[in-house]
Structure formats: structure tokens, C-alpha cells
Specification:
By secondary structure, this protein is an alpha+beta fold. The chain has a domain of 112 residues. Helices cover 37% and strands 19% of the residues. It is globular and about 45 Å long.
């Protein structure tokens, strides 16, 4: 058995809920797709009205694959590359060259592991703190979603998952970020105001993202 999270909108907030399901071990595409199906079945068993979107390259829907951070772009660069190249460490970074490699190579670059403690992010000459947790990643992800022109396609989904995400090993998750985009749309937030500066975004994030 395994436990994985799903994000949804509840009481006008983004919240997380964990589900147990039978885990299919292995690294093949087929095994990961089986795990997606098993997780979604567990969600629908509790909530029969749930419309679940897997947000990763393992999604069974094209829109889920499109919104994977490995495929999604912002200002012409893959989102995964932007995130990894924005990291600032106590002993090094930023590593701007990571903007121009394959997303998987950017994520696995040894310098990200050997440069000491992560102390923040730097993006477009602005410095971001580590708190609120996930605020920076959610910001660039949501910006990319709205830049894509396909954001309205997510409204029909009520739950968002990412089978690759393990909360014991990672903090940021594209499923959470896409749920935040859905919240912004469904509550009719002025996107220009929400994204206007770091202070506005972190205030919004602290108020509406609870999981």
C-alpha cells in the first residue's frame, strides 16, 4: 500500500487530502500508469463525483501531460529549467546554464546537491525567500499556466494528482500549483493584481493555500 495526496478546492481554499491505494512497484511507464489509475479509483471511491486530473508526463489525458513542468513553458523556457536555475545556495548558484539543458538533466545536476543549503530563489532579478513554502514554485507555475492560453481547460476537474510526487522527499508539486490556478479562475481573482509583485503573491498564497 501507498499513500499519496490530491489537491482540491474546499471552502474557497486549496486543501490537500491523502489517499491509500495498492502500489504497483517498478519504474516502467505501465506500472506508473497503473498507480495513477489505482490512486484515482481510491479518490472516486470516497467521492463519486470527483473528476481527477493526473498532472504529469504519466497522465492518461493530454492536458495532464501538457501541464507537466517538463513540458510547460514560461517565456519560452521549460518550467523545470526555470525552477532549477533559480535556486540560490549558500555555497553557489544560480546555475543559469540549466535553462538550456533537458529538464531531467537540470533536475539531476550534481551542483544542486553539492552547493550547500538552499537559501532562496532569484528570478528576473528579484529575490524570493523560502517561506511561504512552495510560494515561488507555485508562482512561476501559475504564471506559465495562464501564459499557455489553456487555463480554462482545468475548470472541469475537481481533484489534481501527481503520481511522481512523494511528500516525504519533495515539497513542490505541480498538482498543487494547478489547483491554485483553478482557485484563481473559479473565484474570479484579478490575475494582474495577484501576480503584481512578490508581496501580493505571498499574501494571496498565505491566505488561500492550506495544503
Amino acid at each position: 500500500m501507498a499513500e499519496r495526496p490530491t489537491w482540491k478546492i474546499q471552502n474557497d481554499e486549496v486543501v490537500v487530502e491523502n489517499f491509500n491505494f495498492k502500489w504497483n512497484p517498478g519504474f516502467s511507464k505501465q506500472q506508473k500508469e497503473r498507480n495513477v489509475q489505482a490512486l484515482h479509483e481510491a479518490i472516486c471511491k470516497i467521492d463519486s463525483d470527483a473528476k481527477v486530473l493526473e498532472v504529469s508526463t504519466k497522465s492518461n489525458l493530454e492536458i495532464g501531460k501538457f501541464f507537466s513542468a517538463f513540458n510547460l513553458t514560461l517565456d519560452g523556457k521549460r518550467l523545470e529549467n526555470i525552477f532549477q536555475s533559480s535556486k540560490v545556495f549558500e555555497n553557489g548558484g544560480q546555475y543559469i546554464d540549466l535553462l538550456d539543458v533537458e529538464p531531467r538533466d537540470a533536475k539531476r545536476d550534481e551542483r544542486l546537491k553539492n552547493s550547500g543549503r538552499l537559501i532562496g530563489f532569484r528570478y528576473k532579478d528579484q529575490d524570493w525567500k523560502l517561506l511561504p513554502k512552495t510560494a515561488f514554485y507555485d508562482y512561476i507555475y501559475c504564471k506559465a499556466v495562464f501564459e499557455s492560453g489553456r487555463s480554462n481547460e482545468i475548470i472541469k476537474f475537481s481533484h489534481f494528482t501527481d503520481i511522481e510526487f512523494n511528500p516525504d522527499k519533495s515539497i513542490n508539486c505541480q498538482a498543487r500549483s494547478l489547483a491554485i490556478c483553478s482557485l484563481i479562475i473559479s473565484l474570479g481573482f484579478d490575475k494582474q493584481e495577484v501576480f503584481r509583485d512578490i508581496e501580493n503573491w505571498t499574501r494571496f498564497h498565505s491566505l488561500f493555500v492550506k495544503g
